[in-house]
Amino acid sequence: MSKIHAIVIDPAVRGRLKVGEVEASRPASSEALVRVHAISLNLGEVRTATRANAGWRPGWDLSGVVEQPAADGSGPSAGTRVFGMVHSGSWAELVAVPTNFLSEIPDNVTYAQAATLPVAGLTALFALEKGGFLLNRKVLVTGASGGVGNFTCQLAKQAGAIVTGLVRREERAGCLLRIGVHNVVVGEDVVAARSFGPYDVIVDTLGGKSLHMVSSFLEEGGSCINVGSATEPEMTLQDRLQSVPGGVLVLNGMPPGGVSKDLGRLARMVADGLLHPPIDLEAPWTEIAEVTQSLLKRSIAGKAVLSVS
After folding, report:
1. Ramachandran angles phi, psi of 300, nearest 5°
2. Is the CB of residue 49 less than 8 Å from the CB of residue 291?
3. Closest-CA residue to 229 (of 251, 203, 205)
4. Which of 45, 92, 246, 294 has the greatest CB tally within 10 Å of its CB?
5. What is the pTM of this model?
6. Which residues contact 302 (CB under 8 A, 6 or more apart)?
7. pLDDT in tens, the chain (309 residues)
8. Are residues 262 and 127 in contact, defined by beta-carbon separation less than 8 angstroms?
9. How far is residue 289's CA from residue 50's CA, in Å, rounded to a whole number?
């Protein structure tokens, strides 16, 4: 079997990540082989990499070109520009991707832009769909300068919501104002966001004490949707479910039936200028160790994208 290059766990190197040689993917009949051009990083997979065993291959998001279409005839043909996601191992030159987790890239969308959409864009989209009808409703987004938070703010605004974004640092406020967020609250203390409420929908990316606090800002009958625990990574799913009096909706994982249509929705919004991927850093994938450390230190706002070559 042929060899390819991929990012793998190596506890002996700085940052525990390196580009190494691995066996090429062997696709199932419903998988297309994609020659990867760009990948984007997510905090969850980076945190997993800090404790994973040697040889494990991380990575969810990718964009590239179909090199070999799925044998069952599903999905795009060879040569099609595509983007999508896998359970793990997307940080590689060649990846087998289930066709129901793959979508075409519009002509005027770049590989880098497309690579940001699968995990962060879909998380934002599905969270807001749980919140229901948003026209003229008040929406609060915590961790609003992160990839998921930024996409959530943009999508909520597109749906006609009155959006308040909560960020920790003053320098992060500008990116939210540029995308038209109505109110930006800066600081470690989430209580300051109460003044723009009560909220019909809260999308929380932080977890922990922040989740418990912001849930008290809800309008009667409102929805609080938690999509992560950025500030307290040790917080379990059960902890998050039980942390809010009256309960909280927790978005955990992607639909098993596939996400192609939803990916297409996001890509068309980017193509039409309605959604702007918040790319804060672009670098070659050989800089994976440095970039992941920056992400863990929360020094990257929005998304980090690495080119694969």
Report:
1. -110, 125
2. no
3. 205
4. 92
5. 0.92
6. 145, 146, 147, 150, 175, 277, 278, 279, 280
7. 589 999 999 999 988 999 999 988 889 999 999 999 999 999 989 999 999 999 999 999 999 999 999 999 999 999 999 999 999 999 999 999 999 999 999 999 999 999 999 999 999 999 999 999 999 999 999 999 999 999 999 999 999 999 999 998 888 888 899 999 999 999 877 888 999 989 999 999 988 788 888 888 999 989 999 887 655 555 454 454 445 544 456 666 677 788 999 999 999 999 999 999 999 999 999 999 999 999 998 889 899 999 998
8. no
9. 11
Domains in the chain, please, with CATH?
3-116+277-307 (3.90.180.10), 121-250 (3.40.50.720)
The burial of 27, by beta-carbon neighbours within 10 Å (0-12 exposed, 13-18 middle, 19 or more buried), is given as: buried
Distance between CA atoms of residues 1 and 5, nearest Å:
13
Please give the helix or strand (H or E) that residue 33 lies within, else none: strand 31-40
User: If you ran DSSP here, which 8-state letter would residue 226 be given?
Assistant: E
